[in-house]
Amino acid sequence: MxxxxxxxxxxxxxxxxxxxISFTEIMSEYDxxxxxxxxxxxxxxxxxxxxxxxxxxxxERQLSPMTEGEVSEMAPKMEVA
Length: 81
Known about the structure:
Elements: H1 3-14, E1 19-26, E2 34-41, E3 47-49, H2 52-63, H3 68-74
Antiparallel strand pairs: 1-2, 2-3
Helix pairs in contact: 1-2
């Protein structure tokens, strides 16, 4: 996915809220180049990934409400005596 396409998706997801998009390429002699794609929408956590698809998927998870099953999976398990 291109930067411009990711930018358009972010603007649509932000729905008028302040948002930002950034791309950083990290050069390392040991690990080789790595990409850092970052998205932010006001009131949400930054979403990062090595690809735009990963960053967008993370932001989409933040924006979509959890289902009842997802909430119960995250709740601590209570032991019954």
